[in-house]
Each structure stands twice: as structure tokens, then as C-alpha cells.
Amino acid sequence: MRNYYRVLGVHRKSTLEELKVARRKAAERYHPDKQGGHVDRMVEANEAYRTLTDKSLRRAYDVVVGAQPLCPKCKGEGVTKKQRGFTAKITTICSTCHGAGHILTEEG
After folding, report:
1. What pLDDT is stored for residue 50 in this prediction?
2. Whole domain around residue 88: which residue ranges?
3. CA dist., res. 24 & res. 104, Å (int)
4. Which of 30, 52, 80, 86 makes a 20 to 30 Å CA pair with 105?
């Protein structure tokens, strides 16, 4: 699966406005009506834009590509990872529900 963030040249926490600007730049560069345009790249940029600007599609995409795990309790978007001590354990706390008694632990 293609990385939509790389296709548009944005970071994973980009805002809607940043996505609009990135898509506009891609259209200026790759639009098939322009000299040197690329249909495939324009289609890919449009698909990336559609996916990343829709909240539910973006959330699902981020889970698939491993960009942002979802909290199993609240399905929150903001899961942060913190490493504790000298062990290989990584504790994941949801920033949406702030843990709410819910902490995931993964072996690293």
C-alpha cells in the first residue's frame, strides 16, 4: 500500500488546510492537462487527499499502515507511546480518553 502522507508530501499530523495546500501543489504539478503531467500520479494524489481529509477513512488508513493505533476502548485518534525504564516494554496511553483506567502494554 502506498504511503498517502508521502504522496502529498505532508506529515502525519497535518491539518486539513495543509492537506488542501499539498493537493493543490500536486494538481499544479501532475494534472494531465499540464505539460509533463502524469495521470497516475494525479489519481494517486486525489485518492490520498480523499482518504486523509475524511476523519473515519484517515483513522482506518492510519491503523492499516501502522501510523496511529486506535484505542480499543474509545476508538480515539490520539494514542501516544511512552517507554518506561530499561525494559523493552512500551506503554500506550490514549490521549483522547486519557487512559480512563485503560493502558495497553506491548513487548518491544
Report:
1. 95
2. 69-108
3. 39
4. 52
